[in-house]
Design a protein that fits this description.
By secondary structure, the chain is of the alpha/beta class. It has a single domain, classed as Alpha/Beta hydrolase fold, catalytic domain (Rossmann fold). The protein has 7 helices and 4 strands. It has a 4-stranded parallel beta sheet with strand order 1-2-3-4, with helices on both faces. Helix 1 packs across helix 2. It is globular. This is Prolyl endopeptidase. One of its GO terms (cellular component) is cytosol. Pfam families: Peptidase_S9.
Length: about 240
């Protein structure tokens, strides 16, 4: 049985519950997505509660480590577009938990995203920094504005950012490339180039596709080239080897 419930729910029998089943023809119900049921949870990962998305992802990562599936230096995380934002926020909040990060065409500047192309359409999920209250939500997790030197925050247990590849495309008119490029410049300056003896030895690099957009309609050869680059980077950073 797959159960979805609020975190820290009190198991005292007081909560309404929906139990769905099929019950026949040797068919088992597996976890799936249902638009109609999002009304029960749709506000729990947006606007003022956006941090819940990052907390859930971090919790999933911690489980993979605590259950013995992997260890932080062997864990690579990957996401694109809104998932790129997720990756950017999580490496800021828990750089010690990951060994490698791949962020595709992510929304990284949460204070100005609404000023470029169709970014204004996303304010229903993120909020808008032009409003004082919503600015307060966004500044707390905006990847661009929360790059920190973790070894200064926790000198007793020095750590660094995971090996990171930020991927974008020069003709992306959905999430414009400035998001990835500004974050790349900020990370490289803050963590590496501005320090003589920076403990940041994990690489922070970018990959920019030319004559390409947000992803849809990209030629097959470009898809192959990008996949080869990002997974070769991942394998190198995690010390993985390929089995033929």
């Amino acid at each position: 049985m797959f159960i979805v419930a609020r975190k820290n729910i009190k198991l005292d029998g007081s909560h309404p519950c929906l139990l769905y089943a099929y019950g026949g023809f040797n068919i088992s119900i597996t976890p799936s997505f249902s638009v109609s049921r999002t009304v029960l949870t749709r506000h729990l990962g947006s606007l003022a509660r956006k941090q819940n998305c990052f907390d859930d992802f971090i919790s999933a990562s911690e489980y993979l480590v605590s259950a013995g599936y992997t260890q932080p230096k062997k864990l690579c995380i990957e996401g694109g577009s809104n998932g790129g934002l997720l990756i950017g926020a999580c490496i800021n909040q828990r750089p010690d938990l990951f060994g490698c990060a791949l962020a595709h065409v992510g929304v990284m500047d949460m204070l100005r995203f609404h000023k470029f192309t169709i970014g204004h359409a996303w304010t229903s999920d993120f909020g808008c920094s032009d409003k004082k209250e919503e600015f307060g939500w966004l500044i707390k997790y905006s990847p661009l504005h929360n790059v920190r030197r973790p070894w200064e925050q926790h000198p007793e247990q020095p750590t660094q950012y995971p090996s990171t590849m930020l991927l974008t495309a020069d003709h992306d008119d959905r999430v414009v490339p400035l998001h990835s490029l500004k974050l790349l410049a900020t990370m490289q300056h803050s963590l590496c180039s501005s320090l003589k003896n920076s403990p940041q030895t994990n690489p922070i690099i970018g990959r920019i596709d030319c004559k390409a957009g947000h992803g849809a309609g990209r030629p097959t050869q470009k898809l192959i080239d990008q996949a080869a680059d990002r997974y070769s980077f991942m394998a190198k950073m995690l010390g993985a080897s390929w089995n033929e």
